[in-house]
Amino acid sequence: MQSFLRSNSCQSRPLDAGQGLLYYEYNPCARARAGQKDHRFMAVLLINKTEDETRFALMRGDSLCEYSVERTDREEIIGNIYLARVERVDERHNACFVDFGSDRDGFCTFGDLPVPFDSGKPRIRRGDTIIIQVEREAVGSKGASVTGYVSLAGQYVVLTPDTETAGISRKVPDAERKRLAEIRDSLNIPDGIGIIMRTAASGATKTAITNDLKRLIRTWKAIQKEGKASKIPTLLYRETDPVIQVVRDLLGLPLDEVVVDDPSTHDKLKQYLGQVQGRKKTNLRLHRGRNPLFEETGAESQISQLSDRQVELPGGGSIVIDRTEALIAIDVNSGRTKGGQAEEVRLKTNLKAAEAIARQVILRDLGGIIVVDFIDLLKTGDRRKVEKQLKASMRLDRSQHRIQSIGPNGTLEMTRKRQRSVAGQLDLVPCPTCGGRGTVVASRTVAADVRRRLEARLRQGMGWVQEIR
């Protein structure tokens, strides 16, 4: 196995006190000092495939960092491109609703429509035909969120038709950005099409990037041609094989090793990696151990905890995660944390909680509005430390997010875009007893209700009873 740090240093050394994985990942000098073979920095993708589902677990050392699952009986629609019909234009909400073949119409804001505008209003009306891409699937009573600005992701490039975008991933190192900018500016890009250089483009040759771009342009032209000849609504483009898609999106980390427990999936990935990888190779291995792959690596036990409402913090304290249709609330409890003055204990607990919250948000792929209720801190400087810790811990997140400051009442608000559909998360269903609220009716309330029902029956002459206790 290669090291997650990919340094050319000589000897490894233990972590400095108070400095975790993030310090080494974003500090080249520290990475060089840490050495190549430290297991704690290995980035390994585990793939477990059965007839019913395919599970993906990204491990860094012994810690589970990301988890998703693809089920054969549930169709993934995020990223799919459809030919849709406008069913309703809602000027009050600056949006329209489109029929793309789903049970519920998709919701598209005016700002996501690549159409001309007159006096601030788009030239669109009921019955118009548009090409849309699903950004977020339907959740609860809300329909899927869709956009008219399509994007096609390749190995090194993201194609953005109907835009003039010319960007480079923010995660690309500064030393590499100049080279990629020169390659981007030299590419033959058709008018009205933008591109974004992905993190995986770091180190890629101009020929590889050019070929990737040409393939995406051909795909987009085929989508447009299909849209002109198809009935409405219809599916025009579906994302690639989920296994290839996950590996493709993770290759820019960098990824040290991919371990698969299914021979056919191993052969498929071997062919794919041989086509797209240059000098920097990701090790691919077929798991042949007696124990299941996820159990042997410790991933299974960590996955089983992802449905827990309460997460314990090291040294005391906990965080409690509650989902509602409007937002996700996370409460920080001090518990029996020991040591130091009261303010010092509160700060220590909040710092540990910030790191745990970032991990749980990424692992559970929490999205939308997230409100965190930290333990109250009196000093402004302490609140800034907690904010800084949360932002640093969220740097490993591959999804778009925005973190606000802690308010005067001790709450912090953040927004995050989910990476996966609900189908790609844990398969949870509402409790048949409580209806998904997490509570059941108290015994005395049940008893009082039984008494009322019995008395009502007696009044109706439907029996007799000697005594009700």
Provide an overview of this structure.
- This protein has 469 residues and is of the alpha+beta class.
- 29% of the residues lie in helices and 25% in strands.
- It folds into five domains: 42-71 and 242-302, 2-Layer Sandwich (Nucleotidyltransferase, domain 5), CATH 3.30.420; 81-147, OB fold (Dihydrolipoamide Acetyltransferase, E2P) (Beta Barrel); 152-237, 2-Layer Sandwich (Ribosomal Protein S5, domain 2), CATH 3.30.230; 305-424, 3-Layer(aba) Sandwich (Aminopeptidase), CATH 3.40.630; 429-469, no CATH class.
- It is globular, with a radius of gyration of 26 Å.
- Strand 11 (152-153) and strand 12 form a beta hairpin.
- The chain has helices spanning 21-25, 28-34, 174-186, 206-229, 242-250, 263-276, 293-296, 299-303, 342-364, 380-393, 443-459, and strands at 43-49, 53-60, 63-71, 81-90, 95-99, 106-109, 117-118, 121-122, 129-136, 145-147, 152-153, 157-161, 166-168, 193-197, 234-237, 257-260, 283-286, 310-312, 318-323, 328-333, 368-373, 401-403, 411-416.
- The strands form five sheets. Strands 4, 5, 6, 9, 10 and 15 form a six-stranded antiparallel β-sheet that branches.
